[in-house]
Amino acid sequence: MTNDLFQVDVTLNQEALNEWLAYRKEINKPLKPISIERVIKKLIRLSEGNLDKQMEIVEQSIENGWTGLFAVKKTALEVAKETKQSFQSLHENVKF
């Protein structure tokens, strides 16, 4: 069952929202309308309006058995790459 009543923003991944609502119902923690409105805002904020990232956020929470939505956690490899790039950039910009 979909909840198209909450189609409020073009930057909302409706499929991700529906999956989250179904999951919450399945674990016997359904959301009330005011909570759904806040979930929508949070999904858009955490994803910066990126529809694919919204699904990643929902999938991460479901996979971990969480009852809330959180920013997608970076893998150790992603953190290492970012750190390496930062050091390379710093090294290139420092004159000896």
Number of domains: 1
**In sequence order, what are the helices and strands, one letter per element?**
HHHH
Estimate the helix proportion, in percent.
55-70%
Arithmetic mean of pLDDT: 88
Count of β-strands: 0
Q: What's the shape?
A: elongated
Q: Hey, roughly how much beta strand do the residues contain?
A: under 5%
Unreliable spans: none
Global Rg = 18 Å
> How many distinct helices?
4
Task: For the record, give the distance between the C-alpha atoms at the N and C termini, rounded to a whole number.
Answer: 64 Å
The major sheet is characterized as: none
Structural class: mainly alpha
Description of the molecule:
The chain is an all-alpha fold. It has one domain. Helices cover 61% and strands 0% of the residues. The radius of gyration is 18 Å and the shape is elongated. It starts with 13 loop residues before the first helix and ends with a helix. The model has no long low-confidence stretch (mean pLDDT 88).
Summarize the structure.
With 96 residues, this protein is mainly α. It is built from four helices and no strands. It has one domain (4-93).
Can you give keywords for this protein?
61% helix, 96 residues, mainly alpha
Topology:
Elements (H helix, E strand, L loop, with lengths): L13 H13 L6 H15 L3 H13 L12 H18 L3
